[in-house]
Specification:
Penicillin-binding protein 2a (Domain 2); 34% helix; alpha+beta; six-stranded antiparallel beta sheet; Beta-lactamase
Length: 698
């Protein structure tokens, strides 16, 4: 009996099992039939019923400068479209002629007659959608187009705007390569450059999904059936970039590259105590001969640094040996043979003869420096490399932007190592570094021997709420002793005061630095083309910023004549900013003078001064003037408004600034209230009508 019961139970279990398997197979077959064989049919039915499964795009986060200014943001742009079949005959026939004429004038893609023919044909063919312009336009133009016949009627006429988001840089091409971009290929793979790509995981957010139902002409609403997934907007990142320093560095480098007809150049400015990157500039010549931001030479550009590497060499020598700066080294007639055909040369014809160590560094004597290294490290070259390891010059910095390569530093175990490798490495050959690596070590010398990790993004924000804070700090123990720091400062100040960079010597503050000029390798051989550079810090006594400048292949230029002047220009600007901000109290007008705009329309200003009883001195016939005060007198100085040259509107009221710029042909955007504190396009540069400019008011 028990056997029969057991058999019955097993039979029922098998039957249930086979039943479940059969049902599962039927369900799977049904899914395959619906999705594969009947997929197009059901998609068509869904479309006919006005139902669509759509992605809801997340808003991309902003990229901010150190003071919160927008470097990159999303702005709404629009395209104009029409449902040609929707409007009534009376509306279509009455307005089609005017609409076609306006389209032809505004977008210049087709003639009036072509538009009439295309729209009439589309209506006859009962088409429900036609795009009326290819290139999206901004909100200002949308407001104008909204007044057109048919467009102003909205849904009744079947005309509507399609909104799309576009990445907008308020400061135009400022720090363009550093800000970067992201794109998606046909396979939906994300690629890009700069901060946009490096922080894609933060900025992108997460797209949502929902089932939408059509409720009007290209109008959809989500169906709340539980399948709705809300998008998560991207977070903002605040960088360490200072807009003023970035703009001035770009201007200074571009001017130098053009004057020397160089191939490319880069600049990095770093805050000494924190490692915060205040500016990164990368300019290279395009096919038209213009200098544009393209490749990130500053972070990713490996090259033989040449004599700027001597700061590391001298630091290693001072740490290793009891060298005094007034010790001497014989450099001879300008040539010295190390092994066989390995001949070291100095730039001065006939040589320098006997030099002190300080003089050898100041004039950048290759023979002097390499002989010292050969003397103290020849028997143990691994010890020299060990100093480079300690200095952080043999490994990546783990910088926040993607694309940083590892330095190329030979070791005695390398099969290409030879007896001549050590002396040539000591002067910046047979090794490769990025400008960021060289600057980071130089910054450590400025920072009392302590290395700080460079960084360019200081926080992640959700509105005003800090989500993540990036802090730099001292990396490990002191790289060099206080004694070496003091001697290196003396050596690097000497380069500017007496040596290869004495042309940039300042009467107002001391700079410390080192020039570099290396011959470029092309096709495996050294050429007459040069990679020139200057690295240093300022003020030398109390360092505020460190900076490196690269100028590649200048016409007849070396580190001291091509790169060093750019450093000087940047240092002068940064130092003057500091004086204005910290050392000089704000100028206050006397009680006799009320607060007046710093720049204004002369006729308005004269009328205002007369009514307020203020003495005035007009020293120009220009319509627009700068304002200066002398005791109780208002001075008006000429403010020229040249054609195709960007005017300086800083200090103007918003009304005056917009009047000037719009009459020049600019599209003006502004943030804040009050007078103009900053303009996104540099004064004195050339522009084209229709260019955008952002004004910061305050």
């Amino acid at each position: 009996m028990s056997r029969n019961i057991r058999h019955s139970i097993l039979s029922r279990v098998r039957l249930a099992y086979y039943g479940m398997v059969g049902i599962s197979v039927i369900i799977l077959l049904k899914i395959l039939i619906i999705q594969v064989w009947q997929g197009e049919l059901w998609q068509k039915k869904a479309s006919e019923n006005g139902v669509s499964f759509q992605t809801i795009k997340a808003n991309r986060g902003n990229i901010l400068a150190d003071d919160g200014s927008l470097l990159a943001t999303n702005l709404p742009y629009y395209r104009l479209a029409i449902d040609p079949y929707f409007p009534k005959d009376t509306i279509f026939n009455k307005h089609i002629d005017t609409l076609a004429a306006l389209l032809a004038v505004q977008f210049k893609e087709k003639s009036k007659q072509q538009w009439i023919a295309e729209l009439t044909t589309a209506r006859a063919e009962k088409k429900r959608y036609k795009l009326l312009n290819k290139e999206p336009f901004d909100h200002l133009l949308k407001e104008q187009i909204s007044q057109w016949p048919m467009v102003s009627m909205g849904r009744k006429a079947g005309v509507f705007f399609e909104k799309i988001e576009r990445r907008f840089r308020p400061f135009d091409n400022l720090a363009r390569r550093t800000i970067g971009f992201v794109q998606q290929d046909s396979g939906k793979n994300i690629f890009g450059r700069g901060l946009e790509f490096s922080f894609q995981h933060v900025l992108a957010g997460r797209d949502g999904q929902a089932i939408f139902q059509k409720v009007g002409i290209e109008q959809w609403k989500p169906i709340n059936d539980g399948s709705y997934i809300r998008p998560e907007d991207g977070l903002d990142i605040q960088t360490t970039i200072n807009v003023d320093l970035q703009a001035h560095a770009e201007q200074a480098l571009q001017k130098a590259l053009a004057a020397k007809n160089a191939d490319f150049g880069s600049v990095i400015i770093m805050e000494v105590k924190t490692g915060a990157i205040k500016a990164i500039v990368n300019l290279s010549k395009d096919k038209k001969g213009n200098y544009v931001e393209d490749n990130n030479y500053a972070v990713a550009g490996l090259a033989e640094p040449g004599s700027t590497f001597k700061i590391a060499t001298m630091a290693a020598l001072l740490e290793e040996a009891n060298i005094n700066l007034d010790d001497t080294v014989q450099t001879g007639d300008g040539t010295y043979r190390f092994y066989g055909d390995a001949v070291m040369t100095d730039p001065k014809k006939g040589g320098y003869g006997k030099l002190t160590v300080k003089q050898a560094f100041e004039v950048s004597s290759n023979i002097g420096i390499s002989k010292l290294v050969f003397k103290y490290f020849r028997k143990n070259p691994e010890k020299f490399i060990a100093y480079l390891d300690k200095f952080g010059l043999t490994r990546k910095l783990d910088f926040q932007m993607l694309g940083e390569p590892a330095p190329y530093i030979k070791r005695p175990t390398d099969p290409t190592w030879s007896g001549a490798t050590l002396p040539w490495m000591s002067i910046g050959y047979e090794l490769k570094l990025t400008p960021l690596h060289t600057l980071t070590f130089c910054n450590a010398l400025a920072n009392d021997g302590y290395m700080v990790k460079p960084y360019i993004v200081k926080r992640v924000l959700d509105g005003n709420r800090v989500i993540q804070e990036f802090e730099t700090g001292v990396k490990g123990e002191r790289l060099v002793s206080a004694r070496t720091v003091a001697k290196m400062r003396e050596l690097m100040v000497g380069v500017v005061e007496n040596g290869t960079a004495k042309s940039i010597r300042s009467e107002y503050f001391k700079m410390a630095g080192k020039t570099g000029t290396s011959e470029k390798v092309i096709g495996g051989s050294y050429t007459e083309q040069h990679y020139t550079s200057f690295v240093g810090y300022f003020p030398a006594e109390k360092p505020m910023y460190s900076c490196i400048v690269i100028v590649d292949n200048p016409d007849g230029g070396y580190g001291g004549t091509a790169a060093a002047p750019v450093f000087q220009d940047i240092a002068d600007f940064a130092y003057s900013q500091r004086l204005t901000r910290e050392l000089v109290p704000e100028a206050k007008l006397t009680d006799a003078l009320p607060v007046l705009p710093k720049s204004a329309y002369q006729a308005d200003l004269r009328l205002l001064a007369e009514r307020l009883g203020i003495k005035q001195s007009v020293e120009t016939k220009e319509k627009w003037v700068y304002v200066r005060t002398a005791n109780d007198t208002l001075k008006m100085l000429g403010h020229k408004m040249e054609n195709n040259i960007v005017p300086n509107v800083v200090g103007m009221t918003m009304r005056d600034a917009i009047y000037v710029l719009e009459n020049k042909g600019f599209k003006v955007f502004f943030t804040g209230k009050g007078k103009v504190k900053q303009q996104s396009v540099l004064a004195g540069t050339k522009f084209n009508k229709g260019d955008r400019i952002l004004l910061r008011l305050g």
